[in-house]
Description:
- This protein is an alpha+beta fold.
- It has 25 helices and 51 strands.
Amino acid sequence: MTRLQRYKRSTFILLITLFVPLMAIADVASPLPNHFIKISFDLPNHLIIGSVDITLPSKVKSIVVGRHLEITELLLNGELFSPEVKGGLINLPPHPDGTKLSINYKGLFDTPEDEFSDNRIDKDGATLLEDWYPAAQADLSHFSLEAKTPRGLVAVSEADKIVVEQTDQGSRVFFEFPHPVSNIHLAMGPYIVERDRYRDIEITTCFLPKNRSLAARYLDRTKKYLQMYEELLGPYPYRRFSIVESTRPVGYGMPTFTLLGENVIRLPFIPETSLGHEILHSWFGNSVYVDHATGNWSEGLTFYLADNYYEDLKGKGWGYRKRILEYYESYIFEKTEVPVVNFKSGQDGPLRAVGYGKVAMIFHMLKNYIGEDSFMNALRILVARRLFQTTSWMDIEEIFSEASGEDLKDFFTFWTHKKGALDIYADQIRTGNDSQGYILEFRLNSTGLHHPLRVPVSIRTDEKTEKRTFKMSESRQSFTISLDGIPREVIIDPNYNLFRTLSLDEKSPVLSRLLGDHTRTVVIPKNGGETYNGLVRQLEERGFERIKEKDLSNITLDKRSLLFLGPQKDHGFFPGSMEGAAKGFLLRIKFNPSNPGHVVGLVLAENEREASAAAGKIFHYGNYSYLSFSNGVNLEKIKIESDRGGRFAVPLPVSGISINALQALPRIISGVADKAIVYVGEKHDRYGDHIVQLEVIKGLYKQHKKLAIGMEMFQYSYQNAIDDYIYGRIDEQTFLLESHYFSTWKFNYHLYRDILRFARDQRIPVIALNMDNKIVRKVAQKGLESISKQEKLLLPENMDFSDQRYKESLKTIFKTHQDLYNDMGTPTVFENFFHAQVLWDETMAENVQRFLAKNPDYNMVILAGNGHLVYDFGIPKRAFKKTGRDYAVIMPDPQIPLEPNLADFIVFPNHIEAPVSPMLMVKLDVEKTPLKVVGFPSESGAEEAGMKKGDEILSIDNQVVKDIETLRALLFFKKVGDRVRVKILRGKKEMELSVVLKSPSKGGPHREGR
């Protein structure tokens, strides 16, 4: 590893963080090499000319010579010495302590094409970060530096004291630094220097002229960080701190200064985040050195006391720690997992997830385990005792054990040597009563636990949420607690104080889950793939497998995380509105519908320029589910949120309500009037439920004249027919025919007639919500893969199949309630049934979103079956994700046990018989036209009038009967007892019969047809 690599740091969760020096164990009591370096520059020729006088201890066996350096003269104790440079090393003969070695050298740094080197010398200055001087091969050395700088340029290096002498050509600058380090660095440029002080510490900014206006903010923030960390940790270890700008795209941290690229300097969040991180490294890493042989603890501790700490101060630390866990899960798999002691340094996702994220969480758990006072006291002892010494995990364990008075060996051994995170969950949850209130029993489980663990748990009751901490000493442990209120939910670790795996409902579909997945695959489209060539190259550099769209059928889609490029038609993951041209650059991430352990993504770019401009930037937005860019500038970033904490419902063996809590319907309506969306459920054939719906609509319409009604009963492809009826352009019979009500919904139209008439009278928009039931039925019968390319275009985008609680609840329906399938037919495969139900729900939620997006000043009442509303599983939760609009659910008696979160209000309508339409009382073969009579129920008016099996019905009262829909629409407007003229075809002979219309018998409803 080069000396520069010891300093390099990399980006983690959108924050630029920088690596500390990589130093092995050094006995600071023994002699260390001492380097006195003199340099000057030939800028036009990209040259450094230098000399190094080294005082060598006997243990140093060789000198490191960088590949860009040329030795011009070497003297060993004053005698000419001409060794061969092999593999970048000069091997030394045996020598005593105090041996003098003098080296003259020059270095050529004019290779900007060398992407692995950040050294450069040009007319504007120099950046010298690695192998720019010959040095003793040692972990720690002393350095002093004299640099001749051309006129107009300012140089910065590690220094507690800087002395500048003016010369005719420029300046001679002496950098004095009394502490041992692994190597030193130099930056030189036409800087505008601004100065300030915090106590006896000199603070400077060295910015290029175009960025000098940023200096005041950086100086001010630096003083605040120094004050903050001195109060937490003790005195700042040095006498200077500088923020230095580089024209190179760098982000490095060194003792006494940080070097940041000009683009980094301008980022608005850097002074609020990464600057403090770098200042904190002055304590951990840059003065309390890391013993890398036992693992790098410094990056994680700095990450915890800087980035996480700043979020804690804003009350958002829980969210930051949740992102740490999400990032870890995104990048860590069996093959990429390493224990903490194996982390030395590293810039790839898995190593950062361990060295930054997991280590930060270890220190957070340690603080909670021993208490904040003991934790902070231990940190102050660590700084005071280990300053300028290499420090191992064992040293840290010893200091924290001493400060807390506890033996922490098991804690540190478990967390630094064991791979992975804890898997914690609750089960065996029961509730009961005692003389004081309520009893809650539950068991906490954590596989592989080998040390005592304090598990934070919140218990949600009807009145409040109680916070408790339970000490686990075994991998399975039961607890019993008393509560004042009825327990509803056990929530494990809602503030993310434990390094644990996230439950399925806590996970969000974010880009990092795609970037880190070892199965990550980019799908090259059949057409237009050249638009994404630049992005594909970068994806392949990050380990993506490339596959052509035509070869998708050859891989198992539910076993991978996939990124699709360009408008998609065939695969079904992003159907519908994702088709067509994009503006700028868009990226969406969702869980793989067939396996929420993976994700799928879609990129749409307007052209190759937009794709290339965004390609290199998306990798810095791993925490988001949706991104949009224009000309490489981020316009929007959205994260699909998830549950907070691992949530486990408390099952109630018996539920009930106080009769005194019952409210009249008008009061319930007043209680939901402030909601943007009010869902009112129904059992489709209960007339009383529809009377409740109408009353809710009327009550809300009094308060919101801009009200719309969304109805499950109509398919959105017939919206024009609904609009024409509501706004008086067609009559009711035409409406029934053009909306195809009798073939698509089939329930007695009298159930909904008053609702639609009220909407027509008041000109209230009625919005058809439902999907074409032929598609729903096909999915239920044969699965999503059975639908055609054209049908896929009609599917809602971003369908979410990840709600496992919903899925489990539907399994019961699938097994026991065949009558609830309605237009699904009778599915035989549960996964198909589940996908059809989600398709149904997502379609209705999307149509709610579409209306509200076009009409943001409207409120809505949604009429749908109870099954789409219970526990918010179906439409409400999905519409909320799409709209963000608040809602309430009113549910007529669902005829299932009452449980928390079933709905906001349960109402109990009276049983009322609905009006019925008169019928011919015939059984018909509806698959053929004309309609053929195949039988008669008892007391059939048609049979009494002389109709026979095999007769074909041609017309009623001279109105042609085209199909069963027409027949039902014609009869709907007749009355029981009316006599109608029915023209029939018997054989080849037309006949007309006079039939008395009757109603179905009390034995049950009868539908014409078969």
